[in-house]
Each structure stands twice: as C-alpha cells, then as structure tokens.
Write a structure and sequence with these properties.
The complex is a heterodimer. By secondary structure, chain A is mostly beta strands. In chain A, 0% of the residues lie in helices and 58% in strands. Chain A is built from no helices and eleven strands. Chain A has strands at residues 4-6, 11-14, 19-25, 30-38, 45-51, 54-58, 61-66, 71-76, 85-93, 100-101, 105-110. Chain B is mostly beta strands. Helix content of chain B is 0%, strand content 48%. In chain B, the strands form two sheets. In chain B, strands 2, 4, 5, 6, 9, 10 and 11 form a seven-stranded mixed beta sheet that branches. In chain B, a hairpin with a 6-residue loop joins strand 7 and strand 8. The chains are: A mainly beta, B mainly beta. The interface between A and B is medium-sized, with 21 and 25 residues.
C-alpha cells in the first residue's frame, strides 16, 4: 500500500467551477501537508502549506486537513484556465524533511 | 533571487550508457534533494544532502546511481549504466534548512533511455 494515495484524474472542468482535489494517507506520523502545482515541463511549486489539522485559505485556494480520517483536500474556487496544471499533495513527518508525494491529479480548466 | 538551476534540460541516451546531471541550488540553501519523477507519477526522493553530507539515500539504487555534493553547493547525479526504466524527469530541490517549510524545485532534466 502506498503511503499517499491521490485521486488520479484527469479532471476537466469549465471556467468558474469549484474544484476539489483529494489525498488520503496511511502514515499517522505525517504532520505537515502541502499542495504543489506543477505546470507542464516545469518543476513543482509550493501552493499551500498546513500544519496538523484544520483549514487554511489563500485567495481562491483552501486547504483542509482531517487527521482523524487521514484525508486532505484542496479546493479551488472560481477556477481559471491558468489553474490548468498537475496538483501534487505532499506530506512530511515532524522529524526529518523527506517529502512523500501523491501521484498527482491533472486538472484542465476549459474557457 | 535566482532559482534552482539544472542542466541539461533534456538528455537522450542508449541503455547501458552513462549520464550525469548537474544542480546548482539557491544560494545559502544547505539542504539539497534529488527526486525522480516518472511520467504520470509524483516525485520520489532519491537522495538528500545536508551541506555536503548525505542525510537520506535509502531509495537510491546504489548499484547504478551515485550523487555527490563535494563543496556543499553544487551537486551531480550520475547513472551508470542506464536502464530503460530510468527514463524520467530528475528534479533537484533545495531549502534553507532540513525542517523549514518550503523546498524550491528546479525545472528538471528529462532523461529518455532508448
């Protein structure tokens, strides 16, 4: 079993839609939860960062962590064509700095 | 601030050949990572350096992969000999320290083994 499972997609939505991206994990030691965005032929860039459980909002993006269910989500409101990318969830234990990534969800927002 | 620099951007080699990738992290970043990203998958850590010392190489196929960071700045990753399944994007990332928040990624080197 993989430590981090991510909805494979691909996901295609119309412009303005609300997008929900999700990951589940099995390692209860994960305490830091991140979402990276990766445009085609580019390296991943950090989008959102959350420690432990709770919600975090940044503009059109909201990250949610439910440690009791080992489930994290990223919501994108009013999605734009420029949001078209692959979204990777990543997680880290408190000790150490290894990031464990999900497989990534490819999102396309159609104008 | 300059980002993480990697070269070459693309490389095509035949199986059993050797190849080397180079990474120059962001200035002052002590922690450096090499990740392998196979098409359609998330990045997988190959090796982590703290300055010029190896912190984690548990997922590095040491029979064919090697990496070094001699002066604690630039790093090279080598594959010798390459196999078809090594076709992937090799990403270098750096952060200021081992536990702070953000790791910055380079654009990667896309390796195709034929």
């Amino acid at each position: 079993q993989k430590e981090v499972e991510q909805d494979p997609g691909p996901l295609s939505v119309p412009e303005g839609a609300i997008v929900s991206l999700n990951c589940t994990y099995s390692n209860s030691a994960f305490q830091y939860f991140m979402w990276y965005r990766q445009y085609s032929r580019k390296g991943p860039e950090l989008l959102m960062y959350t420690y432990s459980s709770g919600n975090k909002e940044d503009g059109r993006f909201t990250a949610q962590v439910d440690k009791s269910s080992k489930y994290i989500s990223l919501f994108i409101r009013d999605s734009q064509p420029s949001d078209s990318a692959t979204y990777l969830c990543a997680m880290k234990e408190t000790s150490g700095s290894r990031l464990t990534f999900g497989e990534g969800t490819q999102l396309t927002v159609n104008p | 601030e300059a980002g993480v620099a990697q070269s070459p951007r693309y490389k095509i080699i035949e199986k059993r050949q050797s190849v080397a990738f180079w990474c120059n992290p962001i200035s002052g970043h002590a922690t450096l990572y090499w990740y392998q990203q196979i098409l359609g998958q998330g990045p997988k850590l190959l090796i982590q350096f703290q300055n010029n010392g190896v912190v984690d190489d548990s997922q590095l196929p040491k029979d064919r992969f090697s990496a070094e960071r001699l002066k604690g700045v630039d790093s090279t990753l080598k594959i010798q000999p390459a196999k078809l399944e090594d076709s992937a994007v090799y990403l270098c990332a750096s952060r200021t320290g081992p536990t702070n928040t953000e790791a910055f990624f380079g654009q990667g080197t896309r390796l195709t083994v034929v």
